[in-house]
Amino acid sequence: MKSHQSFLRKVLYLAGMAVLLYPLSLLGQPRAIQANVPGGVLARIRYEQNLSYAELGEVDPASETLKLATLGFRCVAVDVLWEKAYRYQITEDWTSLSATLEQIARLQPHFINVWRFQGWNLSFNVSVEWDDYRDRYFWVIRGIKFLDQGQRYNQRDMRLYWDEGWFTGYKIGRSDEYRQFRRLFRQDKDFFDWYNPDWEVDRRDNWLVARESFLEAVDMVDNRGVRRRGIDPYLFFSEPAKTRMWYAEALEEEGTFGQRARRNWELALDAWTYGRQTVQLDRRDVGFGVREFTTQSGYRFRVLDLPALEQEETVLRQRLELLTTGVKEQLRRQKIAQLPPEERKLVEADFATLSQEERARRKKIEAGKLYIHPHEIVKHAPKTVKAEAESILRQLQEVWEKIREVRLCRTIINYSYWEQRCKAEASPLGLKARELLYRAYQAYRKDPVSARKPYEEAFAAWRQVLDRYALLKEDPSLLDDLILHIRRYEEVLKRHDEPFPDDFILKDVLEARPPETPIGNFGR
After folding, report:
1. Which of 165, 317, 358, 372 could tie 213 with a disulfide, CB 3.0–4.6 Å?
2. In whole angstroms, what is the distance from residue 452 CA to residue 462 CA?
3. Any idea what the Cα angle at residue 267 is, between residues 266 and 269, rounded to 5°?
4. Other residues' Cβ atoms within 10 Å of the Cβ of residue 287
5. Are strands 292-294 and 300-302 parallel, antiparallel or unpaired?
6. Angstrom distance (rounded) from CA 210 to CA 240
């Protein structure tokens, strides 16, 4: 009897397994593109979510073989290799480190953080271990090439392209040794033979190459259905324009002025505002100012829409007050009646008879206790116009959300400053001030005694620039650069046995950002 029951159970198990084979085949059937076979459920999901190897990037036979060779212990092998890589870095065994990183990449080619972390490690951590800037530069480029290698296996992840742009731009163009790095980069024939042999010589600049990487990342999101990950949208979409600005600034710092400098600042302004709408730029150059973003509620807005949005808000408020004539005045009287006697007297007094202090106090009361929000007006609106008033309020709420997001965006990326900076730098006055300051510094390097007049001419030009473009005084880096030249000017005056003038023409620069070691009598 027992053997008979056992036999029946086995038959039932086999029958159940046979029945399950059909749904499993529906789930796991592979996809065949050439035969136009959509595949099973899992294959379709992998295709739709871009999770199959064909969508992720290249399939490396050596990588797949190495995975099979670990016999299911790939995670253990990766942990061991990461530990080895750290040990090789600590002991400065750079050859073994490079080989170990290659092994890690083979085992985890589609794990994006392998490429991001180790790329950063090579360009930013390993490079600083060397004393010679040429060796540092080699490891910076090694990290950039490591990121490029990862892009082949992760073609639908914009972060590696973004990192490549960041490393090429900011590591080479903003390091302490950026002058040497930029020169080595321009002369690096091996890099451009690898990167793009057809690039013109005058385009071989780290900021322009970085811009290409940023534009590639942006294009992936805009036109190829790639999801933006891990980077604030305002910072993400603003970098192509920012690299144009850094390129224009670098040209002037290295002594290139005139038409070329002006043209690059104009291109930077276009990329920052309207993009290819105003000039013939790269098709990927959507001007940041006209790029559409979406609020949390789904409203679409553009950064350049702020004046129009503020005007729309004003018009809607006026419509609401006109529709509910008398309601706002009634609410104001009620609020005034609730004020303490002293404040009520101040509000009801003739504004022209008040002192400066009393006027300031009254404005504070008006903006606080007496402020009447449109919500209050709608709440007390007559029934005959209440529905229309509520409709206007909904429109106002949409506009408020857009205005809030636009202002947040402008604050995060300092939009107004960079717009004004581009305009200032592209103006004849700004170009003249930059060139005069550069000439003064060159004179200082040759003979400090002879640099007095050039510096005074340069400072006079910068006085005009700062007066016309006041937002420039909010940039600490620009002020620090001016202060560095002012300190050199102080040294020039010492050579002439003259004190630093109390009425110095850029006195406000020193007051806005006092140097640690005071210049002249400022800050003492």
Report:
1. 165
2. 15
3. 65
4. 24
5. antiparallel
6. 8
Q: Furthest-apart CA pair in the chain: how many Å?
A: 119
**Residue where the block lists tokens 């808000």:** 313
Angstrom CA distances, 191 to 170, 182, 194, 252, stand at 17, 13, 5, 25
DSSP SS3 for 37: strand
Residue 341's CB is within 10 A of a number of other CB atoms, namely 7
| 430 CB burial (10 A radius; 0-12, 13-18, 19+) | buried
According to DSSP, residue 294 is labeled E
* Residue found by looking up tokens 């295709």 in the block: 47
Query: What are the per-10-residue average pLDDT scores of the chain (524 residues)?
Result: 71 75 64 55 57 50 52 70 83 82 80 88 91 95 93 91 96 94 95 90 93 95 91 94 95 94 94 78 82 90 93 94 91 90 88 89 90 92 92 94 93 94 95 96 93 95 95 90 94 92 91 78 54
Residue 73's pLDDT is what? 65
Distance between CA atoms of residues 272 and 288, nearest Å: 5
**How far is it, in rounded angstroms, from Cα 501 to Cα 478?**
22
What is the Cα 259 distance to its own chain's centre? 28
Burial label for 326, CB within 10 Å (0-12, 13-18, 19+), is exposed
Name beta bridge partners: 301.
293
Residue 420 to residue 265: CA distance in whole angstroms: 11
> Which amino acid, one-letter code, is at 269?
L
Which residue in this structure is represented by tokens 């105003």? 278
CA dist 314 and 320 (Å) reads 10
pLDDT of residue 376: 92
* Cβ proximity of 226 and 157 under 8 Å: yes
pLDDT at 370: 87
Residues present in the chain in total: 524
* pTM of the shown model: 0.81
